[in-house]
């Protein structure tokens, strides 16, 4: 008997997860930072950011809206696959979702992870989530991750249009705005090991840089900045810099009076965007008398759901892959298999400082 592979029979949207009420905040943060050497002071701080918004991160609602939009895309394109939702750090947890899929008779699903990027946090960790869920769920379906999409034209076009919209929101008398792309910082050691061992490293920061370059190019801008945000971890551990807030200071010192911040590193307006940019960075710009507009994220643009549909169609063999970048693109894997042995190796975790060491 010929062993033909089973057809794909479902799609799972796999994301980070976020709290949906004040009581969720602490247990959510414990899940995120388990064993990661994040100082307790940082956690207290981040908890305050969440509690400032009633303990609700926008991320789950945004993912549910994305799933509705992808459902509509599937329906108009005759793609008859159910869509499931699972998270790494908060309910619906990926383990529970995979159990539900198994109970529904799903055998071979595609997985759309909501990060565009390679690297440990954006890519490998989603493979680890898939592997962990399949380990705890007996008779779990096969789960094949879709590719990284940092340079997908529909993603880049959505970001470019968000910048155009931001430009039109600037006060009429503002000077032409400096374009500043921003993405989540990661430890420089983690960035260095990003990608397969023989591919030169720094996959995450290279892809972010290329996405920024492609968006700026589409806008005809050749002088812009790329900065980082939302660093955590102990201060002695180096993370990608400069930080967005420090960069606003630096721009002010150089006489820049108007800025558009483009959170290209984030697919939707989750907490790092609404706190670190819309609160901290915006307040600093206001103190300095700078005009400040934050461009929208791509996740709610209809093109983003179209892109998810296209990525699925690529795997169904009904669409050709579209991409604009030249950086290598990885991320595909079945059942938690990495792109290559040792791909995106996490750095050694710094141990938590003891209370004695903290004084
Ligand atoms: C590269 C990257 C992305 C983009 C790729 C992707 O989208 O996956 C991302 C996304 C996100 N990060 C998020 C939240 C958090 N990240 C943390 C901590 C960390 N992030 C890191 C990196 C990234 N993170 C790293 C290296 C750490 C240090 C600890 C560790 O090595 O893992 C912490 C702990 C507290 C803190 O220190 O801030 C929180 C609460 C949320 C949800 C927000 C919401 O609730 O709306 C989202 C989408
Ligand atoms: Fe994060």
From TrEMBL:
Q: Where does Fe-coproporphyrin III bind?
A: 57, 126
Any one GO CC term of the record = cytoplasm
Q: What class of enzyme is it?
A: lyase
The record lists the catalysed reaction(s) as:
Fe-coproporphyrin III + 2 H(+) = coproporphyrin III + Fe(2+)
Q: List where in the cell it is found.
A: Cytoplasm
Annotated residues that bind Fe(2+) are located at 184, 272
Q: Which pathway, per its entry? A: Porphyrin-containing compound metabolism; protoheme biosynthesis
Family matches, as CDD domains: Ferrochelatase_C, Ferrochelatase_N
Q: Which UniProt keywords are present, listed alphabetically?
A: Cytoplasm, Heme biosynthesis, Iron, Lyase, Metal-binding, Porphyrin biosynthesis
Q: Which NCBIfam families match?
A: hemH, PRK00035.2-1
Assigned protein family: Belongs to the ferrochelatase family.
Functionally, this protein is described as follows:
Involved in coproporphyrin-dependent heme b biosynthesis. Catalyzes the insertion of ferrous iron into coproporphyrin III to form Fe-coproporphyrin III.
Name-wise, this protein is: Coproporphyrin III ferrochelatase
